[in-house]
Amino acid sequence: MLTKFQAFQQHMIGVVGKPNNLFIPEATQRYPLGARFKYGPRTFHYAYGGGVALAAGKLVAGTDMPAEANVTVATTAAIGATEVPNITTTAAEINLDGGMMIVNDNEGEGNSYGIVKSKANAALATSTDVTLADPLAVALVAASSQVELYSSPYYDLDLSAAITDIIIGVPPVVVAIGYYFWVQTWGPAAVLAGATLVAGSLVSPHTTDGSVGPLITVTAETITENVVGYALTAGTATEYNAIFLRITP
Question: How far apart are CA 242 and CA 231, in angstroms?
Fold first, then answer.
């Protein structure tokens, strides 16, 4: 059995050897969320589907970023500490494991830390505790330091429904509610086309849920859509097209 710190290290360096369940979603968690596996030209990350079923070949997005924004530390945590207790919360933090704590204001601002584990807060309690992967570089001061708490980007994924969604990847298979699976984030994949695609052109989320369309809002100064990758071949709306994903290598 891996310790929490070993699990976090595995998340950072990836998974050695091909997982037996690469294309088989399961109800039981086998790897840390975010664990990485390279399979030829494709990259996969271990994820959790959450409260909705996910279709093969449709874009999925994160739903919990941040889990808590601009919240206060209620107890001082000294330099070198890896435990930060009593962070004020306003919502149920079910799983922050593999996420991040970012200090956004006052003492310690500008520093960020990986979260190894957190106290479940399913009952809408007013605080949570987190264990960090690395010790605090700057002390956090009670009633002053403010932080943002982020779940793993691979936790509680949902079908993409807006062109501005933070896209995580594409499931290679159908994923049932509450199942763990390997989401593809890089390399060639079958993805639903929401509009006509041109071979070699950049693609972004489309207004049709879970699909991609041509990147059209590009000016000399701005790109207002998230680039998902590029079309490998010409594509037709409502069909699944070969897309080279360029989300997370």
Answer: 6
Average pLDDT of the residues in 226-230? 91
Task: Please state the separation of Cα 196 from the chain's center in Å.
Answer: 28
Instruction: Give the predicted TM-score (pTM) of the model.
Output: 0.86
pLDDT bin (cut points 50, 70, 90) of residue 87 is: confident
Confidence class of residue 221 from pLDDT cuts 50, 70 and 90?
Answer: low
CA separation for the pair 234, 36 (Å, rounded)? 30
Kindly tell me if the per-residue pLDDT of 7 is higher than 50. Answer: yes
Q: What does the DSSP assignment read for the chain?
A: ---HHHHHHHHHH--SS--TTTT--BSS--S-TT-EEEETTEEEEEEE-TTS-B-TTS-EE-S-SSSEEEEEBSS-B-TT--EEEEEE-SS-----TT-EEEEEESTTTT-EEEEEEE---TT--SEEEEEESS--SS-B-TTT-EEEEE--TTSS-EE--STTS-EEEB-SS-B-TT-EEEEEEEEEEEEEBSS-B-TT-EEEE-SSTT-EEE---B-SS-B-S---EEESS-B-TTSEEEEEEES--
**Which residue's entry shows tokens 């690395």?**
134
Q: What is the pLDDT of residue 67?
A: 78
Residues 6+ positions from 147 with CB-CB distance below 8 Å: 68, 71, 72, 73, 84, 87, 101, 102, 103, 104, 140
Rg (CA), the chain: 19
